[in-house]
Specification:
Blueprint lengths: L3 E4 L5 H10 L4 E4 L7 H5 L3 E2 L3 H6 L3 E4 L4 H9 L4 H4 L5 E4 L5 H13 L3 E4 L2 E2 L2 H6 L2 E6 L2 H14 E8 L3 H13 L5 H13 L1
Parallel strand pairs: 1-2, 1-4, 2-3, 4-5, 5-6, 8-9
Antiparallel strand pairs: 7-8
Helix pairs in contact: 4-6
The chain binds NADP nicotinamide-adenine-dinucleotide phosphate.
NADP nicotinamide-adenine-dinucleotide phosphate binds next to helix 4.
C-alpha cells in the first residue's frame, strides 16, 4: 500500500486523514498547529516536522489547506513538499483554490519529476466525517485512476474533470453557479464543455 502524507488537519482534513488511516494506509501528517493532529497521532499516524519531511516519508502527499497562498507556501515554499519529493511522488491538492494556482503547482511538480492532481471537494465537515465527499479531479488520467482507492476512503462520488486545473475549475462552477449543490445529473454537460475549453 502506498505511504500517504496528509497536510492540513483542519475541519475537513482531520476527517479525511482519519478515513485514510482507517483504510489501512501508513499515514504521516503535518499541521502548522501541531495539537490539531493529536487525535490522528493517537490513532496511529506518524508526525513529521515539516511538509518536506512528510514528502520524504510518503509516496502520495495530500494537502487540504485554506487557500491558494497556503497551498503555494506548503507545497512549493521553503521546507515544502517539493523539497522532499522524489521522482514519481504524487501530490494531491484538495483545497478549493484558483485553477491558475493548481496549474502552476502542477508545472512546478512536473519539473521535479512528480505528478499533481487538483482534487477539491464538495460537502461539509459532516459529509467529510461520513466519508461521502464529492471529489472533482484534474490532472493526468492514469494518476487519477491509480488514486481512486485512496479517494474512495474519503468520498462517494469521484469525477475526472480533465487536465490540471479542471478539478478546481469544476469546483468554482459548482460553487458560483450552483452554490455548491452537487449537480451530478448535469455533470456530463459541464464535463464536455470543460473539455472543449
Ligand atoms: N469547511 C467546509 O465546509 C468546506 C467544504 C468544501 C471545501 N472546503 C475547502 O477545504 C479547504 C479546507 O477547509 P477547512 O474547512 O478544513 O479549513 P480549516 O479548518 O480552516 O483548515 C485549514 C487548514 O489549513 C492550514 N493552513 C492555513 N494556512 C496555512 C499556511 N499558510 N501554512 C500552513 N498551513 C496553513 C490550517 O493550519 P492551522 O490548523 O495551523 O490553522 C488548517 O490545517 C478550503 O480550501 C475550503 O475552501 C471546505
Amino acid at each position: 500500500m502506498e505511504r500517504v502524507g496528509f497536510i492540513g488537519i483542519g475541519l475537513m482534513g482531520r476527517h479525511m486523514a482519519g478515513h485514510i488511516l482507517n483504510g489501512g494506509y501508513p499515514l504521516t501528517v503535518w499541521n502548522r498547529t501541531k495539537e490539531k493532529a493529536d487525535a490522528l497521532l493517537a490513532a496511529g499516524a506518524a508526525w513529521a516536522e515539516s511538509p518536506r519531511a512528510v514528502a520524504q516519508n510518503s509516496d502520495v502527499v495530500i494537502t487540504m489547506l485554506t487557500n491558494a497562498e497556503a497551498s503555494d507556501a506548503v507545497i512549493c515554499g521553503e521546507n515544502g513538499v517539493l523539497e522532499g519529493a522524489r521522482e514519481k511522488t504524487v501530490i494531491i491538492d484538495m483545497g478549493s483554490i484558483a485553477p491558475e494556482m493548481s496549474r502552476s503547482i502542477a508545472q512546478r511538480t512536473e519539473a521535479r519529476g512528480g505528478f499533481m492532481l487538483d482534487a477539491p471537494v464538495t460537502g461539509s465537515p459532516k459529509v467529510a466525517e461520513a466519508g461521502k465527499l464529492g471529489i472533482m479531479v484534474g490532472g493526468p488520467k492514469g494518476i487519477f485512476e491509480a488514486s481512486l482507492p485512496l479517494f474512495e476512503t474519503m468520498g462517494s462520488k469521484m469525477v475526472y474533470a480533465g487536465k490540471n486545473g479542471m478539478g478546481t475549475t469544476l469546483k468554482l462552477i459548482n460553487k458560483v453557479v450552483f452554490h455548491d449543490f452537487w449537480f451530478w445529473d448535469k455533470f456530463r454537460f459541464f464535463q464536455i464543455m470543460l473539455r472543449e475549453t
